[in-house]
Amino acid sequence: MTDISYKTHIRPFSSSFERITFTDAQIKKATQWALEMEEQKLKERSWQRDSGSMIKRLVTGILGELALEQYLGMEFVDWSIGKTVDYEKPDLSALGVDIGVKSVEFSELPNSIDRFPIILKQNTYPQAFTFYKPLQKTVFICGLATTDVLNTYQTAALVLSPALRAKGNKTAFYGFEQLLPPSSISEYIQQSKK
After folding, report:
1. Number of other residues whose CB lies within 10 A of the CB of residue 137
2. Which residues neighbour 194 within 8 Å (Cβ) at sequence distance 6 or greater?
C-alpha cells in the first residue's frame, strides 16, 4: 500500500467539502456536554481504561454532528447524557435514517501526525465524515461513504492507538476520493423516507 496522508488522500478532494464555523458559545456548549458525558462514561468499566483524550473526542464528535445538523437544516443531535449502550445506533436515526457521523480532529500544527477517522471493520450503514479544525473553530463536512466504500477503503495501519488496533474490530478510513458530496446526504435522507 502506498503512503497515505492528508496530502495524498484528503487535500486533493477538499474543494468539495462544506465548511461550518462555530461561535465560542457553541463550542462552550459542546464542551460542557462532553464534560458531563465523560463523568457518566467513567462509571462504565470499558471507559475506565481510556487514554485520557475522551473530552477531545467527545467535543470533536458532537461538533461534527452539529455541523451536519446545521448544514442539513434538520435537528437530530442527541444532547442527553447516559450509558454508552443507549447511543449505539446511527447518529441520524432521529431523522428516520441509518447514517452515522464520523469526526476526527484535523492535524493543523506543523509536523503533527495525520489522523484518519476510525470505523468498524464491518459496516452496515453509511457514514458522513467531518474534520474539525479547533484553531479555526471550523468543521469541514467531507461527504458520505456507502457501506461498500467503508468496507473497502480501510487499513489498520492508520489506527494510531496500539490498544485500539489490538482489539481487532476497528480500522481507519482513507477513501475520501470515493465519498459522495455533502449534498448527497440530504438526498439520501429524502430517498430513505420514501
Report:
1. 15
2. none
